Structure formats: structure tokens, C-alpha cells
Amino acid sequence: MKRFKALAGAERGNEFLRGQAARVPLCFSIASGGDVSTATASAAGIVVAPGKSAEAAFTLSAARETWDAFAQPVPPVGYQSLVAMVRMGHLYVEGDMLEFGRRLLFLEQLFEAVRSPGSGSDGPRASSAVKSGLEAPGPQGAFIEPVVGRYLRLDLNGRAHRLYFEEAGQGIPLVCLHTAGADGRQYRALLNDPEITARFRVLAFDLPWHGKSSPPPGFERETYRLTTDLYVETVMAFCRALKLERPVVMGCSIGGRAVLHLALRHGDYFRAAIGLQSATHAEAGADTRLRDLGVLHRPDVHGQEAAAGSVACLVAPTAPSAEKWETLWHYLQGGPGIFLGDLHYYFAEGDLRNGLLDGLDTKRCPLHLLTGEYDISATPELTAELARLVKATSFQVMMGMGHFPMSEDPARFRGYLLPVLEQVAAAS
């Protein structure tokens, strides 16, 4: 169990780990084959001792080969995080699963100490980051980004809404749909990319209840649940209110599902649809106990820390650290129960294994599909099957990318997106 000795003292230099350990102590065991160690996090720090403790809330149990894969500088798909290994059935949590769910973000950060250095995730992207508009201010000092934020007042299903959106650029409208539980900030790099905004008017809005968009009056008496009809009607109301002429719609995750519903119902209106992490349905994983326990929205769990901890497994291990954590920050800021309400659409109500896709005409509305290699929810295999079913205009797996390509690694993502946008523009 020499590998797990690296957990001891991991709080040094990490104020988050130190604070969490001091405020809420945790004792858990780690099993690797026949060997067991126990880690204890408290105000005194993090210590690791051989053997299993009776005080351990749970045990993380996996084969030695699983821990070997996890510890690689760039781990294989499905081994990039603790939750990823749980979802894929490589790691089993024995004991208090709820306590494991409470401490997801803490545990994911802590176990970074086990991973061998050398992934190079922050090194080779400096020049690419400049191209995506993420460069730091130069010697001239501060600058204002060419992004304008506004509020749109409109009625949805007879109820008043205040919708926030940002835009930049000119030309073909490109409407961007964010992932479940997040908001339009995920498209910050596209909004700042002069090569894109020279030909496209990029618009990213926050769904009602998300980001800076307000929930409707009376929300305090409701439980938020996203449905197909509500999602489609919201996108169409936004486009019509801004009088967008034949826009392109691009969405990721739930947005990647929504572009399919939009192409089905309004294919004549949209110039093209771009699905990021699109699939007919989402894979719940081999172990659904975290979801079944409702860790995303219950009074004895910090729902937003649980949300960020649960989606960290969907970020590629090669993503730059700053972009990875900004992506997770959007989840840390979400409203209570909103991520869970979006997942109702993602896992249940918006499932397209119902024959409806037979009516999707990709000649009428071209459909381009891009999916990250490390996505274990809308997997490349699921997107490939979707591409086959609907005869997609194009499909490509984005190597070294996860579930949030536009925000977790925007410099790498633009290399895949630009050829698609070029194809859309040429067809126009």
C-alpha cells in the first residue's frame, strides 16, 4: 500500500483540503487486492496507517490493476477519477455511501496525490490559449472583452421570465446551449474568439433558474423539472424574440439532446445543428447508489459540492487545471435542485429511444456531432450509434477531451469546431 502513503500530508499547500479536514473529520479505508490501509483527515492533518479501522465510514475497494490505471499520469478512459471508477464498476464503495457522496470533491482532490506527475495538462497550450481569446492582459494592462450581456423579458407558458444572455460577433447566428446545472459562461472562449465572431454572431443564454436568469414568480412553491416541451419552447422563444434568421444551434450534454429535439420539431428553421456529447440517452453507470440516495438535493448534503464532485469524473485528465476548475465552479454556484431537475430531462423525459429519431432529416437540417473521448455519460459509442441512426452530416470523436469541451479545454476544442463551422458557413 505504498502508493496511498502519498495521501498523508496532502493537505500541505492545499487550503481547501486542510479546511475541510479540520471542519469535518473523515476516516475511511482503502483496499487494494488483499491489502488495506486507513486514511484519517482531521485538524491534525491527513495520516495513513496500515490495516482497516473500525472508525472508517467506508472502504474504497478495487483491484491493484485498477489503482495502477488510476495512478497513471494520463489514465485510461473510465479511470480518470474515483467517481468515474465507481460508475464504470471498477471501484466499489463498501459502507456509508451517503458519507462518500458528501465528501466527493474533497476525495477527488485528495486522491490527486496518488497520481504520478507528468500529464503535462498545463504545458503545451499557451499559444493555443491566445488563439481562443483566453490570454492574460499584456503590458498595456486591463482590457474589456468584446462580449455584451443583456436581459430579455419574455413570457414562457404564460409566465413572465427574465432571461440573461451574452453575445459577440456578427453574421450567422450561433445559439449555444449549456449543460445541465450550469450556464452560458461555458461558452466564454467562443464569445472571445475573433476567428469565430468574424463570421458568427455567438449567443449564449442561461436557461430559466440557471446562472443569471431568474426563476418565474412563485418558484418557491415549486420543484424545478426540465421537460422536452419546456426546453424546446424556451429556445424557440429566445430565437424569435431576437428575430434570429435561420440560426445554427449548438448544445452540449442536455443541450446536445435538445438540438436533436429542435431539429425534429423545427428543422426548417435552423440552418444546422451541432451536437456536443449528443446521444439518444445517457448511461447511468454500473453503480447508481449516489443518484438513488439523492445526494444532489437533500438537506444533509451540500448539493453543489456534490454536483461538482459528481461531474468531475466527466472532465478529461488532460484538461488544463484552470479551465477544469472554472468548469466545476459553475456547478458549485448552481441553484439548489436545479442540476437534479435538468437530469430529469437528460435521463428520463428526453430519452429518444422511442422511434422519434426516424423523423430527423439531416438533409433538411444538417447535424454535426462532436463527442469527447473521456465522456462516460454520453459516450463516443453512443454518439456513433446516433450518427448511424440519423445519418449525421459529420461525426468525430474529440481525443483527449471530456463532457465539457467548450469550457474544460477550449483551445483543443476549437481545433475540432472550426472545420464544422467552416462547413456550415460554406453551405450557407
TrEMBL record:
Residues 174-413 form the AB hydrolase-1 domain. It comes from the Bacteria. Gene3D superfamilies: alpha/beta hydrolase. InterPro entries: AB_hydrolase_1, AB_hydrolase_fold, Carboxylesterase_BioH. This is Pimeloyl-ACP methyl ester carboxylesterase. It comes from Enhydrobacter aerosaccus.
